[in-house]
């Protein structure tokens, strides 16, 4: 049986048994927060449980490295929509120790792409078209600095409400311990 078949079979029983009723909630986050964190498998549940969040408490945005790669990309859009359209009043940016994006080897990623059929010509065309593949596929060397850089990007965005606190955290995926990087309440503009 394929993974897709397993998923679909499970879903039939999930719906039939009305298990979904255990997860019913509003589309507005109860704790009025939107959180950006990493897509690391260890954080699927740990990222929210370690902070005391339950289903429906927080809008959750995940990507590789919990990184905003472009000020007008989908991650920043999700944070802004969370604030302006979905009832969030605070942002949490949470990186984690032992992140796969910390010191990722871009050359190795490109070689794996080639091994899987991406032509050298395609990579060359992208590079000559001005696409910085090292930046696009690259990570960071210090998770704390990455969290700080993301916070700065949010605060410096022309569409961001300076009265919204942006908190920075780093979680240990082995213990769930959280380190405070930035207390967003200390940085908000006072009216």
Automatic annotation (TrEMBL):
- The answer to whether UniProt assigns keyword Metal-binding to this entry is yes
Q: What does the UniProt keyword field contain?
A: Metal-binding, Zinc
For binding Zn(2+), which residues are annotated in this chain's numbering?
A: 38, 40, 96, 99
Q: Which cofactor does it need?
A: Zn(2+)
Q: What class of enzyme is it?
A: lyase
Co-factor: note: Binds 1 zinc ion per subunit.
Does the entry feature the keyword Ribonucleoprotein, yes or no?
Answer: no
User: Domain of life here?
Assistant: Bacteria
Please give the InterPro entries that the UniProt record associates with this protein.
Carbonic_anhydrase (IPR001765), Carbonic_anhydrase_sf (IPR036874)
What EC number is given for this enzyme? Answer: 4.2.1.1
Taken from the record, one Pfam family name reads: Pro_CA
For molecular function, the Gene Ontology terms on record are: carbonate dehydratase activity; zinc ion binding
According to its UniProt entry, this protein's organism is Macrococcus brunensis
What is the protein name stated in its UniProt record? carbonic anhydrase
Q: Which reaction does it catalyse?
A: hydrogencarbonate + H(+) = CO2 + H2O
Q: Which CDD domains match?
A: beta_CA_cladeD
UniProt lists the family membership as follows: Belongs to the beta-class carbonic anhydrase family.
